[in-house]
Amino acid sequence: MIGRAYRDCILHCAAHPERAHRRRAGGGVVARWSPDGSRLVSGGADNTVRVWEAGSGRLLHTLTGHTRGVLSVGWSPDGVRLASVGADGRLVVWSPPTPNPELYLQLDELAAVSWAEAGIALCGVNGVAVFDLR
Fold it and tell me: What CATH number labels 4-131?
């Protein structure tokens, strides 16, 4: 759930509804749970990707690699890596806790990213593309 003026991210664990954590998400506009539900990744209008510990709401990592707002984020199926796409047309692949991107791919206008066993699917103004990063 995104809070007032899209500035506060409220982390809520279904297993412990009494624990809701309000944290600054960098103007967070998108968020996705890790495959095991232990972490949450958010992408912000401030060009950052943040990784949160779901149980405590503690900020684990702040990742910078976009020059414009982050539009979509996704976890690898094993929960080890992250992918993000931004308004800058960049796909960035991360391996937290390493703060440096593992891969940059500059493309045209991107809108969304999804990661599954088959690969990373990107959606943009020119259609959909799938990349196998295994």
Answer: 2.130.10.10
